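Quick start: read one record
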Amino acid sequence: MWPYAFATLKSAWRSPVAWVLLALGAFTGWFATSAAILALDDVGAQSRPLVISTAQLVGVLLTLWLVGRTLDEDRHSGFAAAAEAARPGPAGRLLGRWLGASLAGALLAILAALLISRSAALQNPDAISLLSTSIMAPALVGAWAVFLGAVWRGAGATVVVFLLWGLGHLPWGVAPYLEGPAGKVLAGVLPGPRSAGSLVTLGYTSAAVAGLLLLTLALSRPAET
């Protein structure tokens, strides 16, 4: 598992994709907070959600790109097939790809959040919220991507997860979007932006990540040769 995780992290930082996403995210966040079109009173209070959502999107895009690319490479890789002959096999490969991609996405999201907060001159950027939400979103998106990638091709799985990410923007759990406990569970399971965190949100998201990874292990199969 660990060699795949480290290899995924290394490929993320060596690729220009991560740095282009960081630059685009920082510029978009800076522009949105600087324009402050909807800010009638407290600019800082309205800037924080923009910072968090922009940073999460940057991290999610990198995570999806990494999972899709690496799973497609693994599918026909002779090295992957040989490595799976040893423990922990296909499950270790998929867990390693998830860990490396979600870590890379979380780190990029945190960097983007810090850059945007600094450029927006937020007096209280709420570092704990920025950190927790920036980690949660890429972790859940990565879990969905490796789960679907274990069944389908990696690139196709990333497209479906991105569509689910859009669906996760809906306010599940409140009328008319499946009001009640079922909606709250759906809000935790669907990949979508994470707000500054309650323990309930953290719990639902953590359970969703764990459940998807367990399903991935159950469905994992060897790479093709």
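The CA atoms of residues 13 and 163 lie 26 Å apart.
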